[in-house]
Amino acid sequence: MKVSVDPMVCEANAVCVGLAPEVFDLNDDDELTILLPEVPEDQADRVRHAVRSCPKAALSLDE
């Protein structure tokens, strides 16, 4: 599974960071960084939840 972000849509609300901090991070410029684009199996459910919870629908999954 791969996760990606549309930087033009992302508002750096950090919901994903709170739900899956091992996968998502905000840099000093409030830009979302995906630490693990290839999502480990043990993080899959948390990442799915983060994608569904994004208030701007800026995240997507390719399963």
TrEMBL record:
<dbReference type="Pfam" id="PF13459">
    <property type="entry name" value="Fer4_15"/>
</dbReference>
<protein>
    <submittedName>
        <fullName>Ferredoxin</fullName>
    </submittedName>
</protein>
<keyword id="KW-0408">Iron</keyword>
<keyword id="KW-0003">3Fe-4S</keyword>
<keyword id="KW-0479">Metal-binding</keyword>
<keyword id="KW-0813">Transport</keyword>
<keyword id="KW-0249">Electron transport</keyword>
<keyword id="KW-0411">Iron-sulfur</keyword>
<dbReference type="InterPro" id="IPR051269">
    <property type="entry name" value="Fe-S_cluster_ET"/>
</dbReference>
